[in-house]
Design a protein that fits this description.
alpha+beta, 6-stranded antiparallel beta sheet
Length: 577
């Protein structure tokens, strides 16, 4: 047993050593020492300058992969954890996580280094989308990214889900910003007219002439330069409100609407939209024109600032008094964006210590809950420290202890097309046919064709105890390419229409579900995962200890269920009991 453990440890060390020496072919690094010319009057690196460096590094990475010029299409939310001082070094690393048709996702990591102490710390992480542009009229078809390391496999897999989220982000925002959906009006805020500051005093308008130094090698205005100019006017607007130096904390996801060239005049406008106790949202708009032509919309962004006291804590901010009509619209839209911002930050982060397991579900946060659901399962599946606990008739049970939680994986191969297994296992309404722990499964909401919310009832472990019920979000995803599995992810959510009742003890599922890989046209590898919560652990503890065969029986029943239904060609329709 000791020799087997030593062998596994040696293999794991070899794997880590290979990862350590692997260099992604699209990876680009930039290191810059912060000089006074890069800093503001507080001796801190200007975020605008940092954005320029980040965009440049990411663009070079995209072009290394594409082999042709690339332009910035969008940047996801950026959260800045710390400021950077003069004399410190900024280390930026960018690499292509995944390529689609003519676009690709580039991951950007920014770290700070203190040359005197040798300390390193994280500043931010960002994901940018770049589009490849051929010099001729032919459309670019990008080569696929081939992930090699554990981390690359994880990012490659999650990139598809992030892209799905980006594509519907605009529709979600438009729906949430619909005046019919606003829950509060300005009059309901009970503002103190004496304390409230008029937003008009924060309005900023500035013009920039695009010169050759501002252009990239394609003679378009450098995207990072536009972001730097936008950050500059936003900082001025925030400073006018608080009469102090503000610190930029977040930039919401934004898209470049069109290009700008050398010779253009860029009109940059900024205004404080709303304040929230310790933070404020500033809206920024960039428009361009040349000669007598009408203004072209280049970009809009929303930035969140804080004002820190001497101890680095956020200072309370005064309320604002919005202008009639347009000002009130911006004021209320900022309230809606704050909700989305919190949803995106905490739900997408998958940090269970910062957000309750059963996050309240509503249409505005559905896309973020689905992302969390799928990404959590993919990250759990990608872990490389699973231990084989037992194996019986080609059904393998793996376990993993991590962060004070017990995770398990049941895996087997069988003769069934992967797509057919995906369709059968996606329908939780039929799970009672093979899983004795599912006594009831009721479809509550069909969110869309890939996401469903169920109420699941499981029997009590103890005699005379209450049955348990779970409200589960089921998210299913077909593979985007040959590297991806079929995914069926499950996690708990909360529904206001289905609160806890006296009849059941409400349980929670942290992360569970299936991955299905196509081994061949007729053979699939099916893996079931569960990050055991206290409510789930009693059902599985004896099985993992090897004291019963019920676990094995359940997945034998699952295999038989798939074989019995292999010939059906009916499309997936979620069923209910």
């Amino acid at each position: 047993m000791a020799s087997e453990s030593h062998f596994k440890e040696s293999l794991h060390n070899l794997y880590l050593e290979d990862e350590k020496h692997h260099r992604n072919p699209s990876e680009v690094k930039m290191s810059q020492i912060v000089l006074p010319c890069h800093a503001n009057h507080c001796g801190e690196l200007s975020i605008g300058q940092l954005l320029k460096w980040m965009d440049c590094t990411a663009c070079l990475s995209a072009e290394r992969h594409a082999g042709c010029p690339c332009v910035t299409a969008s940047v996801d939310d950026i959260y800045f954890k710390h400021t950077i001082s003069v004399g410190q070094v900024v280390n930026i690393k960018a690499k292509v996580n995944r390529a689609f048709n003519s676009s690709m996702e580039v991951g950007i990591e920014v770290r700070c280094e203190d040359l005197y102490s040798g300390h390193h710390w994280s500043i931010c992480q960002a994901f940018a989308t770049f589009v490849a542009k051929h010099t001729d009229a032919n459309k670019v078809q990008l080569k696929q990214v081939v992930p090699c390391t554990h981390q690359e496999h994880v990012e490659h897999s999650l990139a598809a889900e992030r892209r799905r989220m980006r594509l519907i982000h605009h529709d979600i925002m438009q729906d949430l910003l619909n005046p019919k959906n606003f829950q509060r009006s300005v009059s309901e805020e009970n503002l103190d007219e004496d304390e409230a500051l008029p937003t008009e005093r924060t309005r900023v308008e500035s013009v920039e002439l695009v010169l050759p130094p501002h252009a990239n090698h394609q003679v378009n205005t450098f995207g990072g330069q536009i972001m730097a100019w936008m950050e500059n006017v936003a900082t001025i607007a925030a400073s006018r409100l608080c009469n102090a130096h503000p610190t930029l904390r977040t930039i919401d996801m934004f898209h470049f609407r069109g290009p700008s060239q050398v010779g253009d005049r860029l009109i940059l406008k900024a205004i404080v939209n709303n304040t929230f106790k310790n933070s404020m949202e500033v809206g920024v708009c960039a428009e361009a024109y040349y000669g007598d032509e009408p203004l072209r919309h280049i970009n809009s962004a929303f930035m969140t600032f804080e004002v820190l006291d001497e101890k680095g804590r956020p200072r309370p901010l005064p309320p604002i008094k919005p202008e009639p009509q347009e000002g009130q619209r911006r004021y209320q839209e900022a309230l809606a964006r704050k909700k989305i911002r919190l949803d995106r930050k905490y739900i997408i982060s998958c940090k269970q210590t910062e957000v309750p397991l059963s996050v309240p579900w509503d249409p505005s946060n559905q896309v973020y809950l689905s992302y969390n659901n799928v990404s959590a399962l993919k990250m759990l599946a990608a872990k490389n420290n699973w231990d084989l606990s037992s194996k019986k008739n080609n059904v393998s049970l793996y376990t993993m202890e991590e962060s004070q939680s017990l995770c398990f994986r049941v895996e087997f191969e069988m003769e069934i097309p992967a797509q057919r297994a995906f369709i059968l296992l996606s329908d939780l309404g039929r799970r009672h046919e093979w899983d004795q722990h599912y006594t009831l499964c009721k479809l509550l909401i069909r969110v869309d064709e890939d996401d469903f919310i169920y109420q699941v009832v499981t029997p009590s472990i103890s005699k005379g105890g209450k049955d348990q019920d779970f409200i589960l979000l089921a998210s299913r995803r077909p593979p985007c390419d040959s590297w991806d599995p079929y995914v069926i992810a499950l996690r708990s959510v909360a529904l206001p229409t289905h609160p806890c009742t006296e009849e059941f003890h409400r349980g929670e599922v942290v992360c569970a579900g299936f991955t299905i890989y196509e081994v061949s046209k007729s053979v699939s590898k099916i893996s079931y995962y569960n990050q055991a919560s206290p409510e789930v652990l009693p059902y599985i503890s004896t099985d993992i200890a090897g004291l019963s065969s019920s676990f094995y029986s359940i997945f034998c029943a699952c295999r038989q269920y798939l074989l019995d239904n292999i010939v059906s060609t009916s499309a997936f329709t979620p069923s209910t009991l």
